[in-house]
Amino acid sequence: MENFTELSKYAKAFSGLTPEREASLLAAGPDIKPHLPEITEQFYAHLLAVPSANRFLEGRVAALKATHLRWMEGLFSGPFDDSYTQAMYRVGAVHVQVKLPVEFMAGGMTILQQKLSDLVYSIYQDSPGQVQTLIKSINAVIGFTLIVMQQSYQASTIAEELDKFLKISGISRILFANLAKAYKD
Ligand code: HEM
Fold it and tell me: Would residue 89 count as lying in a domain?
């Protein structure tokens, strides 16, 4: 079981998601949130143009758009506490279950960074300081989320591979755990 307090601390330190940046995301929420449905549309239009992404989206686009919009609204509402980390860790595992390649996470987040940056420039074009602050905050929260989701990808993939190995080899989980404990490299 993952320690979500430790994972939050680690991912925040790495991505630079400071309390000041969290506060700037929340403060911008009322300006940004009304535009997020457009960003969702642009995100899925972009994904649908990626040939390898298509088969994961067929028949699900409407539901995914709603889920995605809710998640993006959360980026400008917070809180980015251990529950957020735990929820995004689970979302990473859901993507492993649907066999989404790991690079789709980084690819998806990159698209969002571009769309959200364009939005910030257009809303705050007369306040360069505000643009700079918000872009750094958006990059930080997206980086934070990506680290959590990828951590979960790694753990879920290893767990799936181990299950497969135990099934094929007929070794019990207890025997495997004892062998692993006894093995010294
Ligand atoms: C980049 C950031 C992404 C975020 C934050 C995100 C977020 C989510 C969330 C919150 C869920 C719902 C999980 C649940 O069942 O509780 C989900 C499910 C899913 N996502 Fe993503 N997603 C991302 C990228 C992508 C991409 C790039 C694709 C495909 C090209 C994708 C395809 C899916 C699919 C197929 C499901 C499962 C839907 C189902 O259960 O039918 N996601 N995602």
Answer: yes
Among 54, 68, 97, the mutation site with the greatest number of ligand 1 atoms within 8 A of its Cβ is 68
Residue 86 lies in a domain: yes
Q: What average pLDDT values come out for the chain (185 residues) when binned by 10 residues?
A: 90 98 98 98 95 92 97 97 97 91 94 97 96 98 97 81 86 86 80
How far apart are the CA of 173 and the centre of ligand 1, in A? 31
Q: In angstroms, what is the span from residue 106 Cα to ligand 1's centroid?
A: 13
CATH number at residue 77: 1.10.490.10
Rounded alpha-carbon distances, angstroms, from residue 19 to 83, 142, 165: 16, 15, 43
60 CA: nearest ligand 1 atom:
41
Asked if residue 39 is part of any domain, the answer here is yes
Distance of CA 177 to the CA centre of its chain: 31
Tell me, what's the pLDDT at 176? Answer: 83
Write the pLDDT tens digit of every residue in 131-150: 999 999 999 999 999 999 99
Distance linking the first and last C-alpha atoms of the chain: 25
Q: What is the pLDDT of residue 63?
A: 96
User: What is the number of structural domains in the chain?
Assistant: 1
Contact between 138 and 117 (Cβ < 8 Å) = yes
